[in-house]
Design goal:
The chain is of the alpha+beta class. It is about 30% helix and about 25% strand. The chain has two helices and nine strands. It is globular and about 35 Å long.
């Protein structure tokens, strides 16, 4: 697996991977895992490797559905909302996450209000 642009998209996925994708779709995008094992409850954990580290990416599946994406913690280019996580002040990242959550909650409140009318 070559180095990819890892931007986190909360509740959607990261980089080119979405939680709605199955194993074969993900493998067609980023290649086959180098290892996998079964963990608690029958979940499957896959390990994927790039050129420069042992495990760059861990994907976890619950009943064939992607349920977790673990990105490499030493990767300096991981982004969320366009900001590099490890190169931005933590307070900026938290503020942006809180703002996005507030926007989401406001949209949900509007949708509920419209449904009630």
């Amino acid at each position: 697996m070559s180095k990819l642009d890892w931007e986190i998209h909360p509740k959607i996925g990261a980089g080119p991977i979405n939680f709605s994708m199955d194993k074969s779709t993900i493998s067609s995008i980023i290649g086959a895992p180098i290892d996998q094992n079964e963990i608690y409850g029958g979940d499957i954990r896959e390990y994927r490797q790039s050129d420069d580290s042992k495990y760059d990416l861990i994907l976890q599946y619950t009943k064939e559905n992607l349920s977790a994406i673990v990105l490499p913690c030493l990767e300096n280019d991981i982004k969320i909302f366009g900001k590099k996580i490890y190169k931005s002040p933590a307070s900026d990242i938290v503020r942006d996450i809180m703002k996005k959550m507030a926007d989401f909650i406001q949209i949900m409140e509007i949708m509920i209000y419209v449904l009630i009318l």
